[in-house]
Amino acid sequence: MSERVDVAGLSVAKELHAFVENDVLPGLAIAPSDFWRGFASLLEVFSPRNKALLAVRDDLQGKIDTWHQAHAGQSIDVAQYEAFLKSIGYLLPEVDDFEITTQNVDPEIATIAGPQLVKMKKNHLKKMSKQLQMIILK
Residue 5: enclosing H or E segment and its boundaries? Predict the structure, then answer.
């Protein structure tokens, strides 16, 4: 187990603490104490819901595992399997079409399709790689 740092009522892995304070926060105009207090507050609010969702996931996975064990070696009837997944709440009924709108989103996220962002990143990584090679070869 890694060493821990106690901060804002949290026990944080030393490596994560150092990363946040040395690599993430500098230049963001957020004091480390404010960050950790805010993070602790978020965990206090959302941890119970997250724990409940993980319990639902574990329950569903157990039911799915049991179904597969009971049907081991048999060919899967897709309609039967789909009915089973619906019966345990894994598959939910389809809903009517809907739209989602966003506000306060960076233009590159709002107006550029995902694959273009990936390509931009690949090009950026290629450029960085060439720069690193030049530095190493000097």
Answer: strand 4-7
